[in-house]
Amino acid sequence: MFMQRNSKPAKAPWIDPDDAPEWTEEMFRTAAVYQGDKLVRPSTGTLKTPGRPVSQDPKKQVTLRLDPDVLDAFRASGKGWQSRINAELRKVLGI
Question: How far apart are CA 41 and CA 34, in angstroms?
């Protein structure tokens, strides 16, 4: 009987703690404080990381049924295929 080769690494790769980002004043203000195993002050929330800017005209998520060949053609055109479907619909509608 042969053993199967493990396709996943046994453990996560080591990350040097010296590469961690510097803590900001906000991080210190919102962090939980422990003295040994005893919680002295709970955290006051989560840090907000900068993300994608809020759009003035956000898109709506919908479910749309398309013929398989139409969907395959758009997906085959590469990344951004959903935006291209949106552009084609706008073109046909004249908007």
Answer: 7
